[in-house]
Specification:
Layout lengths: L9 E6 L2 E11 L2 E6 L4 E5 L3 E5 L19 E6 L6 E4 L4 E4 L3 H7 L8 E6 L10 H16 L4 E5 L5 H11 E2 L4 E4 L12 H12 L6 E6 L6 E6 L3 E3 L8 E3 L6 E4 L5 E3 L12 E2 L7 E5 L6 H5 L6 E6 L7 H12 L3 E6 L12 H9 L2 E2 L5 H11 L6 H9 L15
Parallel strand pairs: 6-9, 6-10, 10-12, 12-13, 20-21, 21-22, 22-23
Antiparallel strand pairs: 1-2, 1-5, 2-3, 3-4, 7-8, 11-19, 13-14, 14-17, 15-16, 17-18
Helix pairs in contact: 2-3, 3-8, 6-7
């Protein structure tokens, strides 16, 4: 029975496999939700629970956390990520704390790497990110670097983190590391990656790196994080801790764990190589469309009135012959159309087959080896700066932030 139980009470669950002690969290849909000592939650029939002990009183707030003034200063900008998720062991609930003291209590080892200041611009699930929030984020990054911090850490949900990192990379030229970090698994799970990712992101933020990057688990073990260039990274798995991969080449470097040693490749931009600059204008009326067999031309025509459209075409960058006229109609109406490939590896070349040549004749801009989502973000950023089609095409084909590789290798 759960009548009279309070969140955090210790109970004994008598299941078919034997008795196990657990912490009572709540009732839901007629079931008792328990947190096992392993850290996992379990729903069981209420009648299988027996009260053992009352939940202890909540601990009083801790005192101030001391930070070492001799360490480099970093800025943590939060958009709602889980870098500082903390467990209330009385209830089993996970909450996202954000003050500097909360973060340092949750992950005290951070105090050995740097001292921190914090800013929160949003508290959202990453699927709710918008171009206007990208602009707020870019402005916050610019302000913090202008105040003299040695690096910036951006906490972000993983699902759209690659979009946001690419957007900030185009809007902010930075002389210091700007590190995006998230977690695939929350702090209440034994396999959580939030603490390790946070520590590795801090190490990368004080390293000689000088660009925007994503730092996440680099393998299935807890031995390293990978440093990915913001314009070449993609989330490639729904739940693995090493879900993020650099496409078209190796990552910019690694952070070994637990030593937090940072090793950068020669391709990584170095600290101080670029001046601080903000160009935050974006054209939001842009779209991204993936071609598929049977796609009707009317779907393409639905983007009439948009300033830009990125097509993720097949192979070398194709749509069906039936759709070429619709693409030309968009371009004639003032929409800039950029062609990328669903293949992700390799680059677009519309000069091989008739369909590709027809697309070029219609005015399509070849997207080189741009990832489709990076092409979308870049097109949003390019359009306010370019005066005409030729200028848009030139900027889209120019490698500005490492988004375009000089050549495509046969390997991954």
């Amino acid at each position: 029975m759960t009548a009279g139980l309070r969140p955090g009470d210790r109970v004994r669950w008598q299941g078919s496999s034997g008795a196990r002690d657990a912490t009572y969290i709540t009732d839901r849909d007629g079931m008792a939700v328990l947190k096992l000592d392993s850290g996992y939650n379990l729903g069981v029939p209420a009648g299988e629970c027996t009260f053992l002990a009352r939940a202890p009183a909540a601990a009083p707030p801790c005192g101030a956390v001391t930070q070492d003034p001799n360490l480099p200063e970093l800025s943590i900008i939060s958009t709602g990520g889980t870098i500082a998720s903390r467990i209330d062991y009385r209830t089993g609930a996970v909450t996202s704390q954000f003050s500097a003291e909360d973060i340092l209590r949750a992950i005290p080892q951070l105090r050995t790497v740097a001292r921190y200041r914090t800013t929160q611009i949003a508290s959202i699930l990453s699927e709710n990110m918008t171009p206007s929030l990208w602009q707020d984020l870019a402005r916050a990054v610019y302000r913090e670097i202008g105040k003299g911090v040695q690096g910036v850490i951006v906490t972000h949900g993983t699902d759209t983190m690659a979009y946001s990192a690419a957007a900030v990379s185009f809007m902010v030229e930075t002389p210091v590391p700007v590190i995006f970090v998230g977690a695939q698994r929350s702090a209440d799970r034994p396999s959580s990656d939030n603490a390790m990712n946070a520590l590795c992101s801090a190490a990368a933020a004080v390293s000689p790196l000088g660009e925007v990057a994503v730092v996440m688990h680099g393998g299935t073990s807890d031995d390293r994080c990978a440093i990915h260039r913001a314009t070449r990274v993609r989330k490639m798995h729904t739940s693995r801790r090493d879900a993020f991969q650099t496409l078209g080449g190796p990552p910019l470097g690694t952070v070994k764990y637990p030593s937090l040693q940072v090793d950068l490749t020669p391709d990584a931009a170095r600290r101080g190589a670029a001046p601080l600059r903000l160009r935050d204008a974006l054209e939001e009326h842009c779209g991204l469309l993936t071609f598929h067999p049977g796609l009707r031309p009317d779907v393409i025509r639905a983007f009439s009135g948009y300033r830009g459209l990125v097509l993720a075409g097949t192979g070398l960058g194709h749509v069906s012959s039936e759709c070429v006229g619709a693409v030309k109609g968009l371009i004639d109406g003032g929409t800039e159309v950029v062609m990328t490939s669903q293949c992700l590896h390799g680059r677009v070349c519309d000069r091989v087959y008739d369909t590709g040549r027809d697309l070029l004749a219609a005015g399509v801009i070849e997207g080189e080896d741009l990832l489709p989502e990076v092409a979308l973000v870049k097109l949003m950023w390019v359009l306010p700066q370019a005066r005409d089609h030729d200028a848009v095409a030139a900027l889209m084909r120019e490698n500005l932030r490492g988004e375009i590789r000089p050549r495509s290798l046969h390997g991954p």
